[in-house]
């Protein structure tokens, strides 16, 4: 058995359409022995940037890390 957890009912329905639906229950969809269930709302949340970056990393004037490869405005030392 495999368990697929979707963020919302419409995402579960999309997964079920690809896998094929064999039956529906109260809060789940089945395909053989596989189950597709869903939640309502966001299951995960990203942490604030400071949770990823130590506080002693040098910052530029807009608060970004000076070593941020994505930030095109990064100050070079």
From TrEMBL:
SUPFAM superfamilies: Prokaryotic type I DNA topoisomerase
Region (Disordered): 49-77
Domain Toprim: from-to ranges: 3-48
Record's keyword terms, sorted: Isomerase
Sequence ranges of Basic and acidic residues compositional bias: 65-77
An example Gene Ontology molecular-function term: isomerase activity
Gene3D superfamilies the UniProt entry points to: 3.40.50.140
Entry-linked InterPro entries: Topo_IA_core_domain (IPR023405), TOPRIM_dom (IPR006171)
The protein, known as: DNA topoisomerase-3
